[in-house]
Design brief:
alpha+beta, UstYa-like, two-stranded antiparallel ribbon
């Protein structure tokens, strides 16, 4: 059973983490290059993807480092405070709404090898923090430590260098509801790609009379979570 002080420290740590994570896109952001006053940014261009499934065997370590969905367009996202996605139990389904078909698990290659996409691993960690923040049981320390460290490393990996004026630690978030606009990779394309992958895997299982078709429900699959 969590003590009140332990619970308060846990919630405070979660709020700090969520504030940091809200300043980045969970998918890798690109750097906005600032020029002179007449040319503030470079034009936005698509980030090349890797359409390379056929060139890998998917045996052992022979697989691409990123999920190959082709070129991803760029998108702009203005950071905003929200009345949604709180740490309370009532908002749990809002957090679940961020989960794609298959929860982030994909099947790739001729043998339908299972993987998990990093972006959705990160969102899983945030959902885990949210669910544990209102439980009466002590959270699994190993899972908590893993998620904190995983998100820390992913934030550093993304390296979002967007300039934010002023001191965010002194900002009144109740009155100042919007922040800077960030340039991101289009996360909707990632959701669409994973939905297509889930449909393909579901059809493959059906055509080959594989069992446990029930695990293909939206937002849940055991394809790679075992």
């Amino acid at each position: 059973m969590l003590t009140q002080s332990t619970s308060d420290r846990f919630l405070s740590a979660l709020m700090v983490l969520l504030a940091v994570c809200s300043l980045i896109s969970t998918f890798y952001s690109t750097v906005v290059l600032v020029g002179d006053s007449n040319d503030r940014t470079r034009p936005l261009t698509a980030i090349p993807g890797q359409n390379v499934v056929r060139s890998y065997s998917f045996d052992g370590d022979d697989y691409p480092t990123s999920y190959p969905i082709g070129n991803l367009p760029l998108a702009q996202m203005t950071v905003e405070e929200s009345a949604h996605y709180s740490l309370t139990h009532s908002d749990e389904y809002e957090w679940l709404y961020n989960s794609p078909y298959g929860t982030g698990a994909v099947r790739v290659g001729p043998a339908y090898r299972g993987f998990f996409v990093s972006m959705f691993h990160q969102l899983h960690c945030l959902r885990y923090f949210q669910s544990e923040s209102h439980t009466t049981n002590a959270p699994a320390s190993g899972h908590v430590s893993h998620c904190f460290n995983y998100l820390r490393q992913m934030i550093m990996c993304a390296g979002n260098l967007t300039l934010e004026p002023g001191d965010f630690t002194k900002r009144n978030y109740t009155q100042e509801r919007t922040g800077q606009t960030h340039v991101c990779r289009d996360w909707t394309a990632a959701y669409d790609a994973l939905a297509d992958n889930w449909v393909d895997w579901f059809q493959y299982k059906h055509e080959h009379n594989l069992t446990d078709l029930s695990n293909g429900a939206p937002g849940r699959t055991t394809a790679t979570t075992a």
